[in-house]
Amino acid sequence: MASDERNAQAGENESAPLGERDRAILDFERQWWTHAGTKEQAIRQRFDVSSARYYQLLAALIRRPEALVYDPMLVKRLLRIRDQRSAARRRRTSADH
Fold this sequence. Notes:
- Helix content is 76%, strand content 0%.
- The protein has 97 residues and is an all-alpha fold.
- The relative contact order is 0.11.
- InterPro entries: DUF3263 (IPR021678).
- This is DUF3263 domain-containing protein.
């Protein structure tokens, strides 16, 4: 297995300690608006991944207890936003039926 594959798996493994990329994602999310240009451009430039992949990584990351320990206020805020958006989607879906 290539080291890049191991690093990618470790970044997605919920029991592994936070790696450098995990911490970088949380740090970026805390202050992304300080970057010039759009958030999507900053994501591509900083992490060399698509916005969709970044948000997949972020979603998995904020579910990890290690992320909560690393930056509790940020992770709680992101979880609250996620839950609010999920509830809004459920309300729209149930209203459509």
